[in-house]
Design goal:
phosphotransferase activity, phosphate group as acceptor, single chain, Alkaline Phosphatase, subunit A, alpha/beta, 13 strands, two-stranded parallel ribbon, 7-stranded mixed β-sheet, 2 domains, elongated, 50% helix
């Protein structure tokens, strides 16, 4: 083989991947220089495409490449565009397309090799053509569904949407299609798909024909071995990654979520039958109560909680700390440095001290519903199959919303907050993405970032995400105060964050559980519930672990119940969590051991 021809193969392989690097920034895909998910994937694509051309002697211009090239660019082009647009002005990082790239690259090579082998072996040619047709057909149908969904809703299809699909019957599905698409438009989409698949079939047949001009000779043994290795590598890679892309992955997450949620709800219904208020049934307030859940927020990095911090990371909250309506609980700790384990107690009657079994779970939303509030759940995090607490909170809410691009801009929660009726008694839980790693992805491109001399870029990114959360909290508070008759607002973090070890079940550091918490009580609320306000002020600097949020919220509701304990309610005069009692990580670590504990 001539050096010129080898050079041609290499340049075509480079161009085939470079096309993506022209398309990606044009639609809003960023961080293309990232080695792990950007450059490394592109390099792998170049190597595999180059190797396939070299070992077969067929350049990318040969018809046998065309079926794979069509689905390769259609899939990555459509998914990158839709996901980037769903992310709003932020776009998406190239990492978000990692699974798609690692699936479609071997699909490109495998479909080509099937075409090539089919052109050599007439006996299995039809079988290989059917294989290519079915593989490309499955991926193409997925793309058409994804694009159609985007056309209807203006956002990509997520695991949250798959939950809705799995809960929908055939009658509802037909009504949905008629309402949002119309049978005429649906017929056009199906017709286009049929024409497209006929075109794919024609490309497959043409690509696997024997080469009439050059003739076909059986490759040498070493080439056969290399072709076999490339084929097996492509098959194994596809088998590994295709379950991790649409629609298989959203289905996996949604199916697992629904199975666990169904079991949890069955037991939960039994628990609610036993639930009752102590004394007279509480009266709902003529306004709104909001609970905001932060993510990976370390109060040591928050100026309002740590006056010695060198950057103003909480300009709004800092401006409110002398406001008599605000209560900053400066000695708050998370009960566990993982979201699911923390929230399974923070939002329920479970805590580290009362020994209540997980199967006897009652949530703060259950209490709100019983009092008579209209409950809402707004999340900027995608559903997690393991987080049954959030499933219960979401499932028992009057309305539940997940943002169109979970994990994107936290300010998107405002779109849903503004749909809440302004004249009713509302209870709203808002779950932010907060400061979840990667921190820089939590910050709008034009946001005024934090920079502290001597701090690493990662720390500056983290502090900037804390500052942006402060801005989101400001918007939630101001809108609710102006429009929803805000009676009370609680903000707490699920856990903290260590700048080296992040958070998790491994090595423990105090930064992982130094979480923030503040409470706002309106003047009207304080007039009607002066004891709650006075007790909260008295207890403001006492140790508080976030697994006691349930009791605190019940106290704010003025709704004592059989799952409530005034000794764990920081708004009660009987609050009794002492320094020597307080624990974290489900009782394994005593808070008293924290040398940074404030007096």
């Amino acid at each position: 083989m001539k050096v010129k021809e080898i050079g041609k193969y290499f340049m075509l392989a480079v161009i085939s991947m470079a096309i993506l690097y022209v398309w990606y920034p044009a639609v809003g895909v960023t961080d293309l220089g990232n080695w792990n998910h950007g450059l490394r994937n592109a390099l792998a694509g170049v190597i595999f495409v180059f190797a396939a051309q070299l070992v077969t002697g067929r350049s990318l211009f040969h018809p046998s490449w065309r079926p794979g090239l069509v689905i390769f660019y259609l899939w990555l082009g459509a998914f990158s565009y839709i996901q980037a647009k769903s992310g709003g002005n932020w776009g998406i990082r190239v990492e978000a397309l990692n699974n798609d790239v690692l699936t479609l690259m071997p699909v490109l090579v495998l479909t080509f090799l099937m075409e090539y082998i089919g052109s050599l072996c007439q006996k299995i040619r039809l079988l290989l053509r059917i294989f290519n047709f079915l593989l490309i057909g499955y991926l193409s149908l997925s793309v058409f569904v994804y694009m159609t969904y985007y056309k209807i809703f203006g956002a990509g299809f997520t695991s949250t949407d798959m939950i809705s699909v799995l809960l929908t019957n055939s009658k509802e599905a037909m009504e949905f299609l008629q309402s949002h698409l119309g049978f005429g438009s649906l017929a056009v989409v199906l017709a286009l798909f049929a024409v497209y698949m006929i075109f794919i079939g024609w490309l497959i047949v043409k690509g696997s024909r024997m080469d009439e001009i050059r003739g076909v000779t059986s490759p040498a043994l070493i080439r056969k071995i290399i072709i076999a290795v490339l084929t097996m590598a492509a098959l194994v890679t596809i088998a590994h990654w295709i379950p991790r892309i649409f629609p298989a992955w959203p289905y996996h997450v949604a199916h697992k979520y629904l199975i666990r949620a169904k079991a949890a709800m069955a037991k939960h219904d039994e628990n609610m039958e036993k639930f009752h208020f102590i004394g007279n049934a509480p009266d709902k307030m003529q306004g709104t109560i909001i609970v905001v859940i932060g993510e990976s927020a370390n109060r040591n990095h928050m100026k309002a909680f740590n006056l010695a911090y060198p950057a103003e990371t909480t300009p709004w909250l800092s401006s409110q700390k002398d406001n008599a309506d605000f209560y900053l609980l400066k000695n708050t700790y998370s009960c566990y440095p993982l979201t699911e384990k923390s929230l399974s107690m923070a939002l329920t009657n479970l805590n580290q001290y009362n020994g209540v079994d997980r199967n006897d779970m009652i949530t703060i939303t259950d209490v709100a519903n019983k009092v008579g509030y209209n409950s809402y759940f707004i999340s900027n995090q995608a559903p997690s199959p393991g987080n049954m607490t959030l499933a219960l909170v979401s499932g028992s809410s009057k309305k539940s919303f997940t943002t169109t691009h979970p994990g994107g801009d936290d300010m998107k929660v405002m779109d849903y907050l503004k749909t809440v009726p302004t004249t009713e008694s509302n209870f709203i839980v808002i779950h932010l993405e907060g400061s979840h790693d990667r921190y820089r992805d939590r910050i709008p491109p034009d946001f005024d970032r934090i920079h502290v001399d001597g701090n690493s870029e990662k720390v500056d990114d983290y502090d900037s995400s804390i500052k942006y959360t402060d801005e989101v909290l400001k918007n939630i508070y101001q809108y609710a105060k102006d429009n929803l008759n805000l009676e009370a607002m609680v903000y707490f973090g699920d856990h903290g964050e260590d700048m080296v070890r992040f958070h998790g079940d491994g090595i423990f550091t105090w930064d992982m559980i130094h979480s923030p918490c503040f409470v706002y009580l309106s003047s009207e609320y304080k007039n009607n519930h002066s004891a709650v306000a006075n007790n909260l002020r008295v207890n403001e600097n006492r140790i508080f672990t976030n697994d006691l949020v349930y009791d605190m919220v019940c106290g704010i509701f003025a709704a004592p119940n059989n799952e409530y304990d005034k000794e764990y309610d920081i708004t009660s005069a009987d609050y009794g969590l002492r320094k020597d009692m307080a624990v974290t990580k489900y009782g394994k670590i005593r808070i008293a051991e924290d040398t940074g504990l404030s007096d």
